[in-house]
Input
Amino acid sequence: MLRVFLAALLSFAFGSSAFAVGPDMSGLTSAVDFGTVTVAVLAIAGMLAVVYVAVKGASIGLAMLRSK
Output
């Protein structure tokens, strides 16, 4: 049983396969424009950064008011 498993494993590992190169997805990826997706992701990241800076600034300001 172990010999059969090892033989199958070695033939799979060293044998040539039709899927060794991998599927060609260039037809799908060339049809997608990633420019708009990049702009959308950067816009969302910018909005989150503005919210974070506003919250951090408010907490620093309130901490300054409380200390006096």
Remarks:
- The radius of gyration is 28 Å.
- The chain has three helices and no strands.
- The CA atoms of residues 61 and 67 lie 10 Å apart.
